C-alpha cells in the first residue's frame, strides 16, 4: 500500500531468529495466487509458524501473542534470505508492518521491501541486541524511525543510530511514490530531454 513516510513511532514485534528466509516468510504454496490481495498475503505471513499442521493457532509464536503489537518488526540477522520472491514483501506489508529492523538483509528482499513501501532499517548487531532486550523487558517499548533524518531510536534507552538508504528510494517513500508514479511526475522533464536529444 502506498503510504508516505516521515517519522514512525511504534511498539515492536520481536522475531529474534537469524536466517529467516522468504519461504518461512511466505511459504511457496501461496505463490500460486493470481491476485495481490494484501489481506491474503498478510494473513499468511509466517503461515507455518503461526499455525500448527492441523490448522490450529500456534500460541507460542510471537504474532499470536497479544503482548506484542505494532507496525515495526525487529528481526534477527540475515532477514529475507533464500529465493527472490516479492510475495515475501507483499506479506510483510499486507500484515501491516511498515518497518523491519535487522542487522543484515538479503539484498533482493531489502529492495523488494522498499518497492512495497516497507522500510528496511539496518542497525549494528549491538543495537539490535539492545532492542531485543528492551522489548523483552517491556513489550510496550517504543522505537522511533525518522526517515528524513535517517535515524532509529530506542525510546527505552535513548540510544540512537543512523541508517543508510538509497536517495531515490528515500525520495519515493517520503513522497509516497512507486517507480511508475515517479516517472509520471517527471514526464515533462523526460519529454524535454527526448526533444533536446532527438
TrEMBL record:
Its EC number is 4.2.1.33. Pathway: Amino-acid biosynthesis; L-leucine biosynthesis; L-leucine from 3-methyl-2-oxobutanoate: step 2/4. GO terms for molecular function: 3-isopropylmalate dehydratase activity. Residues 4-125 form the Aconitase A/isopropylmalate dehydratase small subunit swivel domain. It catalyses: (2R,3S)-3-isopropylmalate = (2S)-2-isopropylmalate. InterPro entries: 3-IsopropMal_deHydase_ssu (IPR004431), Aconitase/3IPM_dehydase_swvl (IPR015928), AconitaseA/IPMdHydase_ssu_swvl (IPR000573), IPMI_Swivel (IPR033940), LeuD (IPR050075). Keywords: Amino-acid biosynthesis, Branched-chain amino acid biosynthesis, Leucine biosynthesis, Lyase. Belongs to the LeuD family. LeuD type 1 subfamily. Heterodimer of LeuC and LeuD. Catalyzes the isomerization between 2-isopropylmalate and 3-isopropylmalate, via the formation of 2-isopropylmaleate. This is 3-isopropylmalate dehydratase.
Amino acid at each position: 500500500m502506498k503510504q508516505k513516510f516521515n517519522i514512525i513511532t511504534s511498539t515492536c514485534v520481536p522475531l529474534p531468529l537469524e536466517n529467516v528466509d522468504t519461504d518461512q516468510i511466505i511459504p511457496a504454496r501461496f505463490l500460486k495466487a493470481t491476485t495481490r490481495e494484501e489481506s491474503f498475503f498478510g494473513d499468511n505471513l509466517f503461515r507455518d509458524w503461526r499455525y500448527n499442521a492441523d490448522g490450529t493457532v500456534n500460541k507460542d509464536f510471537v504474532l499470536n501473542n497479544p503482548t506484542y503489537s505494532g507496525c515495526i518488526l525487529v528481526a534477527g540477522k540475515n532477514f529475507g534470505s533464500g529465493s527472490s520472491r516479492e510475495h515475501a514483501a507483499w506479506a510483510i506489508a499486507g500484515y501491516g508492518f511498515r518497518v523491519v529492523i535487522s542487522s543484515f538483509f538479503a539484498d533482493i528482499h531489502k529492495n523488494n521491501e522498499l518497492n512495497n513501501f516497507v522500510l528496511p532499517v539496518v542497525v549494528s548487531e549491538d543495537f539490535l541486541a539492545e532492542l531485543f532486550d528492551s522489548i523483552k523487558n517491556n513489550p510496550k517499548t517504543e522505537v522511533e524511525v525518522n526517515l528524513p533524518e535517517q535515524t532509529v531510536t530506542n525510546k527505552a534507552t535513548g540510544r540512537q543510530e543512523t541508517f543508510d538508504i538509497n536517495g531515490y528510494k528515500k525520495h519515493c517513500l517520503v513522497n509516497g511514490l512507486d517507480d511508475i508514479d515517479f516517472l509520471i511526475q517527471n514526464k515533462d522533464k523526460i519529454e524535454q530531454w527526448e526533444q533536446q536529444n532527438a
